[in-house]
Amino acid sequence: MKSFDIAIAGGGAAGFFAALRAAECRPGSRIVILEKTGKFLSKVKVSGGGRCNVTHDCLHTSGLIRNYPRGGNSLKKLFGAFKVEDTIAWFKERGIELKVEGDGRMFPVSNSSQTIIDCFLEEARRLNVQLVTNFGVSKLENTGRGFLLRSLKGEVIHAERVLLATGGYAKAEAYHWLQDTGHSIIPPVPSLFTFNSPENSIRQLAGISVPQGLVKIEGTKLQYEGPVLITHWGFSGPAVLKLSAFGADWVHSQDYQFTIQIRWVQEPQEEVLRQHLLSYQLTHPKRQLHGYPLYEIPQRLWHYLCLKAEIPEGQRWAELSKKNLNKLIEGLFRDRHEVKGKTTFKEEFVTCGGIPLQELKLPELESRIRPGLYFAGELLNVDGITGGFNFQNAWTTGWLTGTAIAGSL
Predict the structure, then answer these.
(1) Which of 181, 210, 240, 250 is most buried by a 10 A CB count?
(2) Rounded distance, CA 372 to CA 354, Å?
């Protein structure tokens, strides 16, 4: 049976970052990363369409934590100890420059996730971190002098300290072995997904988007502003994805069957919108409605909304009735659509749920129940919206646990 100072279950972003930090803090330590699959850093590989959305250009902790639906004020301690600037500096010290895109997302200048993967693998080699694949931990036993980690194949490894960074699980049953540690598990539900609307005629406009809309879940206070994209299956874009994260628990409780209202225009007040349309009607009485989109709405979407308002093609503004005007305003300001199901956003499967932060010492992320046991990454009940925030959680919690574990040996 092999024995290590530190065993890390999970060969993803948080697990690697923790291992490298621990090895730097305590040179010569015997550290091993155990990955249940045959590949390390698979989520890093596909992130950002293969470019790796490393983090987000949100440099103030107070602003940063607002991008995490779960975690609350506890995140102040975590991100206060390892910030976005620290992430940028860490990669820069290893020769990787990051660039900021217009929406705040940060990528390696190389535009390749392989740059990040190669960096981690090279650092692990330099620091003598051992890498083991196809070792899925199925049981964790406290021996009084550390822990025994048993694999699905019956292999056993001993370690003085253990970090669990296995990522989020799709089903609650997958957490059962963790409950043997004495920790409670908040049931996992998807947290980053698009909305399906399978019988919706608007799907014929797939690919059309507006740069600044608002999506609201009817009957709730849940809403989010941002770009809205029409897809072959329903709706996507940052506004929908962020709404899916903040509304994850509620929409799960509704079995992903609910109604949304979409505001296609940037005008936040309905009465101002009405006055603008009435003014336009007086100014351009002979202009045909279908042919001249307002508010920079794409032509095909404007045509769709006019038809939905029962405005015949060829009708001029002077001929527009009050009834049809009201329907057009309704479509522009609160266009209603039925949602029936969800679709994972690209390859970015994210869950909320997992180990509650209340059961851990902060900012070390050490178990209050089993001293010597630590948690990091998506296994925690912390999840961010799209844009690099989930990776920032991985870097921060990995750095904190790596530092704490090395200091505890």
Answers:
(1) 240
(2) 19
